[in-house]
Amino acid sequence: MKSLLLATALILPAAAQAQAIPDAQRTAILSDVDGRAATLASTAKTIWDFSEVGYQEAKSSALLQSELKKGGFDVKAGVADIPTAFVASFRNGAGPVIAILAEYDALPGTAQTTDPTRNQIAGKAAGHACGHNLFGAASVTAALAIRDWMIANKVQGELRVYGTPAEEGGSGKVYMVRAGLFDDVSATLHWHPGSANIVSVGPSRANISGKFRFKGLSAHASASPERGRSALDGIEVMNVAVNMMREHVPSSIRIHYVITNGGEAPNVVPDFAESYYYVRDVDPALVKSVWARVVKASEGAALATETTVSNEITGGVYSMLASETLAKVMDRNLNAVGGVAYTPQETAWATELQKSLEVKRPLAIAGQVLPLGRDGDGGGSTDVSDISWVSPTIGLSTATWVPGTPAHSWQAVAASGMSIGAKGGVVAAKTLALTAADLFRSPETLAAAKAELLKARGPNFKYEAMLGNRKPALDYRKPMAAGK
Questions:
Q1: What keywords would UniProt list here (predicted)?
Q2: Percent of the residues in the chain that have a pLDDT greater than 70, as a whole number
Q3: Is the full-model pTM beyond 0.85?
Q4: Which fold has domain 206-315?
């Protein structure tokens, strides 16, 4: 499987490069996005305020659907058995199908104001520490601008926006791929908030994530401990076993966990406990094999503690198989758009926030476009990867955060809710829109991207979701209570 990932580094013929649309049309698209910049910022801030976690993004999803409906898109909600997922379509005759992805889920435990210093919001359970509020708003902005261009220039084809919930561990896109919603898509475009402007073709990490639930017997922890069998002991023995196992897995493997339920009171032997595990690697097959060993560790822990254990895979994604063909088109457009320009006030804000960063990078990076990225896997995982195995796919990152800001941090939450974040969203919207327009006008590029994908994934490939045939894990963000 790993060898398939290396096959993406192809030398493509000159004919595979998209011809730019006329300058006048490019100017019109850029002006269209600029005219929607205030709405993009407002929408992003509203979703930032909602801060809804995976599969609970009802208000965020409804807001994006409403904007697309107003913009002339036909919207189908609740696709793939996910209430907050949707597909919005604008069809202008027969032609290629270009997809743009939109995310909007927040991360639990990351609430923060837009101050450049640590200032949690009391009573707020989640925050947009990965900037998905910007992701959704900018993608919709790009789609509305492309629709205007298609109508004005009588461009044939179909433009779709995929509203994709629960990217953070819930694998929402996987269920949409499994349902066949991307089978006819000619090219899929996406983006992500970040601290630099770059198009990347590097792989991500495949992963499997899930919950382990131990059940035991309650008893008074002091008066009659011999009558109890601690479910928490089961969790702890499992964790020890897995931590011992780290020495005996490939060094590229990543395993991490939290205990989501460890009991309620120290003087009660807990009869229920739950942990939440991730296993990651670039090679999907290796992830599956190590996950099987983690399951064995849980079973051994249950035997040792005279408890019982069950497990539920709540998420699972492939590694990214990004398209070199599409990357060259998107990279050219990102360079044409350029980076983010700070005002003096934004510079002062960014300088203050930067004091809290462990890694400090020049603020000028936000205004630059970095060379096409090919190295490394970035360490993270995304359910966009599953789409990349069935549809030619490419994405970019833009400087929505202060250079040096790590994802999933309070600093990312702060920037995602203010003007710096929105400016990065505008860069993304413009790049997505120009790239989609180029692809609509370049069937030879789409054909080359499809041929590249077929070669990279190898003969006889059949998509099978890493999470199997289970239904969407709509409650994965809710710890299971004892007795359930």
A1: Hydrolase, Signal
A2: 94
A3: yes
A4: Alpha-Beta Plaits (3.30.70)
